[in-house]
Inverse folding.
């Protein structure tokens, strides 16, 4: 039988200086599908901080902001339309704060995302199992939040169309997953009618470069426990550097390479309940903060199928 | 039921997908790219008799009479135009289209960009002190200048005032020599800009280019290569467009450069060079405030940064003398330990803690902080977009911008006088729990610079365009309140700033009423 697993979620914190603006359900990057007519949903909390940041390639701190922290609360859901087609939804609330200086943080509902994940190919190869996935997702702001007040803004305000390809190989209890995505980003509107990038612009609209993302994850994966290491790279395809002692701007070239660890534990005594946690750290970057993120969350599966009406049934289908 | 859920999921997704694709055209419409060619409704043929600012008379600098249009020299000049017009490239047509919006307008835009490029406070040294930009070494970090609002206001004023005087002189000679434009002299020369009856010797465009280059050599010395390139493009455009022959350009450029000498000489001795002050002077400001029994302003930056240009208040104004600066000083702000100050601080805190989206829009619209063309630049942009609708002649454009920018520079001087005379703390110093919704400027609170600049500007613009007086006043009030909303100014800073800005604006109006242009 094809491999079906209970969905699990994790936030991969995005970029920007405050580095938690781009919430993305990890399920958009992993090699796991929700089985048909099951709905898994949950809440994730993440805490992201940075003290040093890259102004272009110049790494510095700034005692007028101290440490910038970002808290995010996200709701995420994954519904198995079929065993090979899942619908993913997410919505996030974000708040930011600077530990020094006078700048006031911001807070509010950020973006929502909706994706379809499809597994067209699932093969037995050698002693393992190789599968391929395609993910198409859109995300867009759910409030009129301020984008032009970095690093205190809670998001970049773009509408995104993300197209991702994933390959996953599992051998016994060990797995490796690689994926790559292209993110088409819309322009954004700001509250002023002119701005300087590398030249003056007389418009309230900012041209936002597209971006790409590469993600690699590997580790141990069983029904009860997943433990993995991750490496993630985000690259903005265009944009410009923050000048010395200037403010950041939404269309800066924001790049980051991050390493992380992740855990997921499925609670035996409460079928359908799982807990997740993990951390990431930015190894290198450009026009972003060198952030460290800690996160944790809880998810619960509800079965809608008559023949599959409780979660323990679903658990059994998992390998 | 299940099918419905599945179908709705998929439908919703494709709907979002479709919405996204509709909104993904990335080209941006920039307002200044669509400016039309300048086609003045009046040529202001008598502008040579308007009152100049520094020139003793419009004829102070001699311009030799042009040669007759029948001479071989002029014929050769016409052939140059015809040579260009035989095969203009798309790039050259684009250059013509760009500059045809107007010389004063485009140079004002270029100046706004230079201000934005240089409006970055220097990064601290290892020992926590701050380097000061040096005009003698403009390329070393921190690059010269740091075009903060006072520096910017003075730059706009000098450039606009010098352009005005140079154009008054140009108009004097235009009327005197009455040389027709090349497209009037030779019907095979095409007018690629709107044709005009204005005499074309000396070229008004070249006058503007010449005078502006000389002013910018002083004000933005590190950018002269870029500026010179723009000037050459600008002057060549007039030839390609059939609007001037080369000898008209040369005469205009020379006149512009000469007029600039009067302004650069004034600028070198107007005390702006000493406006940074010295550590001893910065200390004396604190001591004298404490001696009065008042809390004194302290930099809230880390490391502590010296206040921005404390001696800008001693710079020589354009519209009145230095004693008038003192006479225009507003009454004292509420005492720092008074009940009134407590009430005002509480009001600032309320705005800090209750930001509405609309107020944030207002704050950011008017912030004009780091890396921008500053509040005086914002008012230049506002004025320019209004003036375009009026189709002023170049000399009237320059006159109106000169009045506007002299008003804002002098408003800056009066405001800086109040700031450093009273040396009052910012709200976040009085109550450290007050968080700001925009960057906190590194100089004292009373009076608000935005309010002073904006009231001076709106007063002058209300005189130039009386049908839009209410609109400008509303904008100034909004700019002023944006600083209270942003939690960086008390209400009394804003009100006092508006009041003294208006008084300064009236001086500019008075000058306008008597300069012969109305």
């Amino acid at each position: 039988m094809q491999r079906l697993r209970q969905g699990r979620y994790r936030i991969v914190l995005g970029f920007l200086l405050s580095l938690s603006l781009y919430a993305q359900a990890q399920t958009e990057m992993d090699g796991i599908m929700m089985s048909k007519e099951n709905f898994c949903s949950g809440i994730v909390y993440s805490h992201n901080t940075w003290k040093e940041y890259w102004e272009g390639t110049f790494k510095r701190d700034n005692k007028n902001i101290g440490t910038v922290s970002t808290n995010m609360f996200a709701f995420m859901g994954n519904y198995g339309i079929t065993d090979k087609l899942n619908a993913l939804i997410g919505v996030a609330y974000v708040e930011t704060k600077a530990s020094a200086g006078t700048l006031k943080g911001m807070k509010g509902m950020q973006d929502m995302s909706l994706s379809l994940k499809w597994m067209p190919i699932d093969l037995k190869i050698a002693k393992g199992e190789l599968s391929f996935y395609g993910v198409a997702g859109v995300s867009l702001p759910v409030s009129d939040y301020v984008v032009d007040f970095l690093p205190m803004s809670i998001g970049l305000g773009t509408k995104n169309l993300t197209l991702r390809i994933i390959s996953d190989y599992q051998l016994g209890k060990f797995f490796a997953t690689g994926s790559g995505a292209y993110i088409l980003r819309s322009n954004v509107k700001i509250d002023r009618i002119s701005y300087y990038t590398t030249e003056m612009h007389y418009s309230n609209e900012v041209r936002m470069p597209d971006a790409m993302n590469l993600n690699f994850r590997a580790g141990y994966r069983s029904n009860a426990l997943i433990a993995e290491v991750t490496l993630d790279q985000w690259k903005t395809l265009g944009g410009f550097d923050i000048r010395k002692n200037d403010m950041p701007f939404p269309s800066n070239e924001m790049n980051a390479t991050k390493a992380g660890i992740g855990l997921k534990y499925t609670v035996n005594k409460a079928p359908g309940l799982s807990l997740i946690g993990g951390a990431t750290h930015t190894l290198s970057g450009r026009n972003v903060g060198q952030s460290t993120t800690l996160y944790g969350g809880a998810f619960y599966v509800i079965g809608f199928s008559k023949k599959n009406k409780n979660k323990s049934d679903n658990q059994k289908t998992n390998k | 039921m299940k099918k419905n859920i599945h179908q709705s999921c998929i439908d919703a997704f494709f709907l979002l997908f479709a919405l996204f694709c509709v909104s993904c055209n990335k080209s941006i419409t920039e307002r200044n790219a669509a400016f039309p060619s300048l086609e003045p409704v009046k040529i202001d043929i008598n502008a040579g008799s308007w009152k100049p600012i520094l020139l003793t008379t419009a004829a102070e600098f001699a311009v030799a009479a042009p040669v007759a249009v029948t001479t071989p020299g002029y014929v050769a000049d016409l052939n140059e135009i015809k040579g260009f017009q035989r095969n203009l490239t798309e790039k050259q047509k684009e250059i013509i289209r760009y500059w045809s919006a107007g010389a004063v307008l485009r140079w004002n835009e270029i100046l706004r960009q230079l201000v934005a490029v240089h409006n970055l406070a220097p990064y601290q040294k290892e020992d926590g002190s701050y380097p000061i930009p040096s005009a003698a070494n403009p390329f070393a970090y921190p690059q010269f200048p740091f075009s903060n609002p006072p520096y910017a206001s003075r730059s706009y004023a000098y450039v606009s005032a010098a352009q005005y005087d140079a154009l008054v002189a140009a108009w004097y000679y235009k009327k005197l020599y009455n040389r027709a434009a090349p497209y009037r002299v030779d019907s095979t020369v095409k007018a690629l800009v709107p044709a005009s009856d204005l005499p074309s010797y000396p070229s008004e465009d070249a006058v503007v280019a010449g005078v502006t280059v000389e002013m910018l050599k002083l004000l933005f010395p590190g950018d002269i290569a870029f500026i010179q390139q723009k000037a050459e493009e600008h002057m060549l455009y007039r030839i390609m467009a059939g609007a001037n022959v080369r000898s008209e350009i040369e005469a205009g450029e020379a006149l512009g450069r000469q007029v600039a000498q009067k302004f650069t000489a004034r600028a070198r001795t107007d005390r702006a060079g000493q406006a940074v002050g010295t550590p001893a002077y910065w200390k004396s400001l604190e001591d004298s405030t404490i001696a009065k029994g008042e809390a004194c302003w302290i930099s809230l930056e880390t490391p502590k940064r010296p206040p921005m240009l404390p001696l800008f208040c001693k710079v020589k104004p354009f519209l009145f003398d230095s004693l008038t600066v003192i006479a225009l000083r507003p009454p004292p702000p509420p005492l720092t330990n008074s009940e009134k100050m407590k009430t005002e601080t509480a009001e600032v805190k309320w705005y800090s803690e209750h930001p509405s989206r609309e107020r944030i829009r207002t704050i950011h619209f008017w912030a004009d902080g780091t890396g921008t063309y500053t509040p005086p630049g914002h008012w230049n942009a506002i004025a320019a977009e209004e003036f375009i609708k009026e189709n002023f002649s170049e000399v009237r454009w320059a006159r109106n911008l000169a009045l506007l920018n002299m008003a804002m520079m002098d408003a800056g001087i009066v405001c800086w006088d109040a700031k450093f005379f009273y040396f009052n703390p910012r709200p976040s110093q009085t109550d450290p729990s007050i968080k700001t919704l925009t960057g906190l400027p590194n100089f004292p609170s009373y009076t608000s610079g935005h309010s002073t600049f904006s009231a001076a500007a709106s007063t002058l613009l209300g005189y130039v365009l009386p049908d839009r007086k209410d609109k400008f006043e509303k904008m100034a009030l909004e700019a002023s309140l944006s600083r209270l909303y942003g939690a960086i100014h008390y209400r009394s800073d804003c009100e006092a700033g508006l009041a003294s800005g208006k008084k300064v604006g009236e001086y500019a109006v008075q000058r306008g009423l008597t300069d012969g242009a109305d």
Chain B touches chain A through 58 residues (CB under 8 Å). The longest helix of chain B spans residues 149-177. Chain B has a mean pLDDT of 96.
